[in-house]
TrEMBL record:
<dbReference type="InterPro" id="IPR050721">
    <property type="entry name" value="Trk_Ktr_HKT_K-transport"/>
</dbReference>
<dbReference type="InterPro" id="IPR006037">
    <property type="entry name" value="RCK_C"/>
</dbReference>
<dbReference type="GO" id="GO:0006813">
    <property type="term" value="P:potassium ion transport"/>
</dbReference>
<dbReference type="GO" id="GO:0008324">
    <property type="term" value="F:monoatomic cation transmembrane transporter activity"/>
</dbReference>
<dbReference type="Pfam" id="PF02080">
    <property type="entry name" value="TrkA_C"/>
</dbReference>
<dbReference type="InterPro" id="IPR036291">
    <property type="entry name" value="NAD(P)-bd_dom_sf"/>
</dbReference>
<dbReference type="InterPro" id="IPR003148">
    <property type="entry name" value="RCK_N"/>
</dbReference>
<protein>
    <submittedName>
        <fullName>TrkA family potassium uptake protein</fullName>
    </submittedName>
</protein>
<feature type="domain" description="RCK C-terminal">
    <location>
        <begin position="135"/>
        <end position="219"/>
    </location>
</feature>
<dbReference type="InterPro" id="IPR036721">
    <property type="entry name" value="RCK_C_sf"/>
</dbReference>
<dbReference type="Pfam" id="PF02254">
    <property type="entry name" value="TrkA_N"/>
</dbReference>
<feature type="domain" description="RCK N-terminal">
    <location>
        <begin position="2"/>
        <end position="118"/>
    </location>
</feature>
Length: 222
């Protein structure tokens, strides 16, 4: 059976989630108080309804607890976002993802039981900052305040060298999780794997260690 999603709030963020889920063939209920927004998504989502999700009875009549995953993408109105989330938690929705506007909002949402809180502007800002500091960092995923996963592009410094020769684990305390070469992905590569310029290397480690490794082995002018 197809997974059932509901997206509350059809601004740029919620709208893009709704569109992407629909394109992936999921069943999506799109909800907004704004009729124009709902009309815009009527042909994209499986169903689109005008509703105020801060009203408990409205949520009940939509049968919201039967959805596998509900995304709350109400932006500016923090009070509505918190109230909606609280009611989704009370009604026992299994997976609730909420967009936070700021750190305080994020704290409250986590406290009241949101399963996942996202902060798209901040997270994208961190990613872009990493990308522009070093052009060899292709992508970046923060695991905690101290640990991350990064994608690095192999340049001349590591060309034709093996992982054991580069001694990444001992010298930098980082682990190479995978190497992407063209369309192939080599997961958990062996120590004698030879790197080639242009390979994408996916590394997990502490930020300070990744940073050291990046400077020594991947930071090239062009
Ligand atoms: P984005 O940057 O993603 O566009 P935003 O911060 O501009 O987000 P808003 O426009 O504030 O987000 O809110 C997103 C949508 O949520 C709006 O279309 C708004 O009508 C809708 N919305 C706000 N409150 C409610 C509510 N109580 N129930 C349902 N929808 C709501």
């Amino acid at each position: 059976m197809k997974k059932q999603f509901a997206v509350i709030g059809l601004g740029r963020f919620g709208g893009s989630i709704c569109k992407s889920l629909s394109e992936q063939g999921m069943e999506v209920l799109a909800i907004d108080t704004n009729e124009d927004k709902v009309n815009e998504f009527a042909s994209i989502a499986t169903h689109a309804v005008v509703a105020d999700t801060t009203e408990e009875n409205t949520l009940k009549s939509l049968g919201i607890r039967n959805f596998d995953h509900v995304v709350v993408a109400i932006g500016d109105n923090i009070q509505s976002s918190i109230l909606t989330t609280l009611m989704l938690v009370e009604q026992g929705v299994n997976h609730i993802t909420v967009k936070a506007q700021n750190d305080y909002h994020e704290k409250v949402l986590s406290k009241i039981g949101a399963h996942k809180v996202v902060h798209p502007e901040r997270d994208m800002g961190v990613r872009i900052a990493h990308n522009i500091v070093s052009k060899n960092v292709l992508d970046y995923l923060e695991l905690s305040d101290e640990y991350s996963i990064v994608e690095l592009e192999a340049g001349q410094t590591v060309n034709h060298r093996t992982l054991i020769d580069l001694d990444i684990r001992a010298k930098y305390g980082c682990n190479v999780m995978a190497i992407k070469r063209d369309e192939e992905i080599n997961v958990s590569p062996s120590a004698d794997e030879v790197l080639r310029q242009g390979d994408i290397i996916i590394v997990i480690g502490a930020d300070k260690d990744i940073s050291r490794m990046e400077k020594d082995l991947f930071d090239e002018d062009d």
